[in-house]
Amino acid sequence: MSNFKKALILIVVLSVLMPLGTVSADTGPKPTMDFTFIQQVNGVPLTIESGILDECEQPDCSDAAPLVVGGPQRFTCDPTSCHALAYGFSKYNRLEIVFSDGKTRKSNIFQAAYFNSDYRVTIRTDDLLVEPQLGAGVLSDLTPFLSLPITWLLLCGCCAGILIILLVVFLIRRSRKKK
Length: 179
Prior knowledge:
This protein is of the alpha+beta class. It has a domain at about 30-140: Immunoglobulin-like. The chain is about 30% helix and about 30% strand. The protein has helices at about 5-15, 135-140, 145, 150-179; strands at about 30-40, 50-55, 65, 75, 80-85, 90-100, 105, 115-125, 130. The strands form 2 sheets. The chain has a 5-stranded mixed sheet. The longest helix has 30 residues, at about 150-179. The model has no long low-confidence stretch (mean pLDDT about 80).
C-alpha cells in the first residue's frame, strides 16, 4: 500500500473517532447594570411585572431600541430589581418598567457609570429616577483587568525583579563588609 493510501485511511479513521461537538468561545468579562428600586409612591407597594432597557446613541434617546437578547446578553427583572448583562452598552440608556399598578414608567436618560454599574431607581408617580451608586463599581471595574493572565505575569515579574534587585544590593553590601 502506498503512503498516500495509508495517510488517507489514517485521516478517515481519526475523523470518525473524533467526537463531534460544538465549539464555544467566551469574550471575557461583560459589563453589567444592576438596578435596585425604591418606592416613593404612597399606597400599596409596587412590584415589577416586566421591563425593557432601551439603548440610545442620541442624548435625547430619540433612537431608543431595546437591548437585544443574544447569548448571555439580556435584561431581566424580578419583582424588586432588574439586571442587565451585555457585550457592551450604548452610550445612553433608559428604563421602561411595567409595575403591578398597570402603569408603565420611563426613567431619565443615564449612562453606564462603571464596567459593573449599580443604580438606585426611585419609583415616582409618573416616572422613574435612575441614579448611579458610587463606590462598589470602582473595585469591580478592576475585575476584567485583574483576570487577564498577562496582568498577573507582569505583576509577578515586577515583584520578582524587585526581589532580585534587593538580593543583589544585599549581597554587594555584604561582600563589601567582609573586605
